Amino acid sequence: MASVVTAETTVLDAEGLSTRQINQALKRLIEQGATEIEVRNPVGQHCLAVALKATVTLRLRGSVGWYAAGMNDGPHVVIDGNCGWGLAECMMAGRVEVNGHAGSGTSVSIRGGLVFIRGDTGARAGISMKGGTLVVAGSVGYLSGFMMQRGTMIICGDAAEGLGDSMYEGTIYVAGTVAALGADAVEKDLSDSDRALLRTTLREFTIDADALRFKKIESGRRLWNFSKKEPEIWRDAL
Amino acid sequence: MSSESPAPPAGEGQGSRHPTSSDGNGYKPLLRTSKIWSPEVIEDIQLKAQLGRYRMQGFSTHRRVPTFDDLTFVPCGLSRVPLEGYRERCETRTVLGTRFARKPIELKIPITITGMSYGALSKTAKTALGRAATRVGTSTTTGDGGMLREEREASHLLVYQVLPSRYGFNPDHLKAADAIEIVIGQGAKPGTGGVLLGSKVSDVIAEQRTLPAGVDQRSPVRHPDFIGPDDLQIKIEELREATDWEKPIYVKLGASRAADDVKLAVKAGADVIVLDGLEGATGASPDVLLDHTGIPTMSGLCEAVRALEDMKAFGTVQLIVSGGIKNGADAAKALALGADAVSIGTAALIALNCNAPLYIEDYHKLGVEPGSCHHCHTGRCPVGITTQDPVLEARLELDEAADRVFNFIQSMTMEMQMFARACGNADVHHLEAEDLRALTLEASLITGVPLAGTDFVLTPQAIADRVAAVLEARSRRRPPS
Q1: How confident is the prediction along chain B (481 residues), in pLDDT tens digits per residue?
Q2: What is the biggest distance separating any 2 CA atoms in chain A, rounded to whole angstroms?
Q3: Contact A45/A66 with Cβ under 8 angstroms?
Q4: What is the 3-state secondary structure (H, E, C) of B247-302?
Q5: Are A184 and A170 in contact (CB under 8 A)?
Q6: Are A71 and B242 in contact (CB < 8 Å)?
Q7: How far is B209 from chain A (nearest CA, A)?
Q8: Which of B170, B224, B231 is nearest residue A128 as measured by Cβ atoms?
Q9: Contacts of A146 in chain B (CB under 8 A)
Q10: β-strand partners of B251
C-alpha cells in the first residue's frame, strides 16, 4: 500500500485499493499521528473516510462516491471533485469542503461542524439538520431543509420546490430564486446579525454574492402542534 | 300524527328504549344495534367530529387477525419419541449475524427485546428491560431518540437502531453497540413514521432529539440519506466501514410486501432480517394505521421464509419476527415455521406492569380500565412505563420491574423448551413445520401446514385431487347398473 510522507503531508495512493483497504489505511495513519493526509485516485469509491474521530486534515484528490466523510467527529475533509449522496451525513463536528458538486442528501442530520459545497447539490440537502452549517455556493434541489431541526443553511444560488418543508427550527438563507417554500416555511426579515453572518461567510469562501439579496426562511411554527383551526396547512402537511 | 294513530312497534320510529327500562312486566327489550353503525363506529365518528383529525392511540390493533393461536403442536406418540419434558436438556442458544459480521451476537435464548424509544418509555422502564435482558442472556434494543447511557450500562447486548429521524444519533453510540438495526418500517404502521405527542416531549427528551419542548413530534418515514434498496446496500457498507465490519447489521421491516422486501434486504447485504407484523405495537399511532395496514406476523413470517429460501439465504441470513408474541407457544410456533428468534415488546411492558390493576383512579382519568389501557400516547401511564412524568415514573420500581421481565422471559423460554421436548427435539431450533397442524383453514392456507384432521393443504390442486379421489371412490361404490 503506497503511502508517502512529504514534508507534513502523508500521501496515500488509493489506486487499486478497495474501500476497506483505504479506510483501514486512513485509520492506521491517523493512529500513527498523521495530521495531514492526501488521498490520490479515490476514483469515486463509496464510504470513504467515515466515522473518523480525530483532528486531521484529509484531502481527497478526485471525485468520491456516496457517504464520503459521513458520521465524522472532528476531521477537516477537502474533496477536490464531485461527490455522491449523503456527504457528511450525521457529522458531529469538523469541516467538509467540496470543490465540485454534491449529490442528494448532503449534510443531512448533521449535529455540528460546517459543510461547504463550491457547486450545486442535489435534492434534500440539509434534511433533519440538528445543528452545524451548510453553505452551498450554487443551487440546491427539491425538499432541501425538510424537517430541519437546528443549524444554518446558506444557499447562494436557487432553491427548488419544498424548501424548508416542515422545519422545526433553524435558519435558511437563500440568495437566488425559491421555486416554492415548503409547508410552514416562512420568510422573515434579515437582521443586522444575519447580514454580518452572511458577509463573513461569503468572504471566507470567496463567493461573489450580495449579502443584502438573501432571503431568510424559518419555521412558521404552525405545525408544531396540531390545531383544528388551521385545517389547510395540516391537510397539506400530512 | 293524530292521537288516534296506533303506536309504532317497539324499536321503530321511537328509537331504542333505554336498556335498563322495562315494559312493566320485567321484560327488557332487545337493542337493535346496527352492525354497520355500531356503537363503536358512532363513537368514532363523533369523536373525530370533535378532534378534526385522525385518532391517536398507543398499544396495537384491536382487530382479530390470524395468529399463531390458530396452530397447534402435534407432539410425539408412537411415531416419534419425546424427550423428558421437565428434565432432559433442550438447547436454546441462538447466534445472529453470521453472514458478514466479524462478531455475531450470541444469545442464550431465541427471544430478544425489541426497539422502544426512551421518550416513548421512561428511563426506568428502559433500564429495567436492559437489566432483565442481561440476566436472561439476550439483547435489548434502543429506539427513536438514540442510546440512553443507563440503557447501555444495563444491557450486556444492545442493538442500536438507525432510524429515519436520526434523533439522538451518535457515531460513538453506534460503535458502542453490539449490533446495528436499520429501521425501514415497523409493524404497527409500516410506511409511516413514529409519533411522540407534545405531552411526552419533555425538556430532557426535546434536548436529546434536538426538538422544541412540547412539540408534537412526527418522525419522518424515509431515511434522509437513502431511499431504495440499491441505496441501502451502500448505506450498509458505510455502517460496516464505520464499525470495522464487526457488528451484525439487522434490517427491520414492517410486514407488508414481506416477500419482496425481504429479498431486497438480503440483496442489500443484511445479516439479519427483523420482520414486525401487523400486531406490533407502538407508543403512538393513528389508529387507522394500526388497524388497516400491514399483514399479520404469522403471514409475514411465512412469506419471509419463502423469500429466504428463494434467495438461498435461509439459515445464512437470520430471521427475527415480532408483533404480538405473547408467550412461549407463539415463540415456539414461530421457530417451527422458520424464524431464528422472536422479539417481544408489548409482552415485556406488560411484564413490567403495563395494564396492571394499580393506581386504578388514574386509569379512570384516562377513560379506561386496567386490562384495556392503550393510552401510551398521552404520557399519563398510570404505572410509570410510557411516561416522562417523574411522579408517574417513580411508581415503577426498577429492581422489581427487572425481576418481573426476567421471570416472564424465563417462563417463555421454558414453555418453548416444553414444546420442543414434546416434539422430540433437543434444541428449540429443531422445531419444524411438520410439528404443527392448523386449526383454521386460513392458518392452513397461510402457513402451508395441514388442517388438523387432514393430511393436505388446501391448494387449488389439492382440491382438484381430492374431488377426483372422492368421485373415483363413489364410482367404485356404485353398484353396476
Answers
A1: 344 444 444 434 344 444 455 556 677 777 789 999 999 999 999 999 988 888 999 999 999 999 999 999 999 999 999 998 888 999 999 999 999 999 999 999 999 999 999 999 999 999 999 999 999 999 999 999 999 999 999 999 999 999 999 999 999 999 999 999 999 999 999 999 988 888 899 999 999 999 999 999 989 999 999 999 999 999 999 999 999 999 999 999 999 999 999 999 999 999 999 999 999 999 999 999 999 999 999 999 999 999 999 999 999 999 999 999 999 999 999 999 999 999 999 999 999 999 999 999 999 999 999 999 999 999 999 999 999 999 999 999 999 999 999 999 999 999 999 999 999 999 999 999 999 999 999 999 999 999 999 888 878 788 888 899 999 999 988 776 6
A2: 67
A3: no
A4: CCEEEEEECCCHHHHHHHHHHHCCCEEEEECCCCCEEEEEHHHHHHCCCCHHHHHH
A5: no
A6: yes
A7: 8
A8: B224
A9: 220
A10: B182, B273
Nearest Cα of chain A lies from the Cα of B215 at a distance, in angstroms, of: 5
* CA dist B255 → B59, B189, B279 (Å): 17, 9, 10
- 3-class SS of residue B105: strand
B234 vs A contacts (CB less than 8 Å): 46-47, 65-67
Q: Kindly identify which residue of chain B lies nearest to residue A104, measuring between CA atoms.
A: B225
Q: From residue B472, give the alpha-carbon distance in Å to each of A43, A130, B239, B477, B481.
A: 71, 73, 62, 9, 17
Identify whether the C-beta of residue B431 lies closer than 8 Å to the C-beta of residue B75.
Answer: no
Spatial separation of the C-alpha atoms in residues A184 and A151, rounded to whole Å:
17
The alpha carbon of residue A47 is apart from the nearest alpha carbon of chain B, in Å, by 5
Q: Does B172 touch chain A (CB under 8 A)?
A: yes
Taking the whole predicted model, whether its pTM rises above 0.80 is answered as yes
ipTM for the assembly: 0.94
Contact criterion met (CB < 8 Å) for A50 and B241: yes
> Please, are residues B250 and B270 in contact by the beta-carbon 8 Å criterion?
yes
Indicate yes or no: CB of A71 within 8 angstroms of CB of B174: yes
> Which one of A89, A111, A224 has the shortest CB-CB distance to B216?
A224
Tell me the chain B residues in contact with residue A168 when contact means C-beta distances shorter than 8 Å: 211-212, 215
Read off the amino acid at residue A214.
F
**Cell 438480503, located at residue:** B266
Q: How far is B217 from chain A (nearest CA, A)?
A: 8
Give the residue numbers in A contacting B (CB under 8 Å), as ranges. 19-20, 23, 46-47, 50-51, 53, 65-67, 70-73, 85-86, 89-90, 92, 105, 108-109, 111, 124, 127-128, 130-131, 146-147, 149-150, 168-169, 224-226, 228, 231, 234, 238
Looking at the complex, report in whole angstroms how far the Cα of residue B150 sits from the nearest Cα belonging to chain A.
22
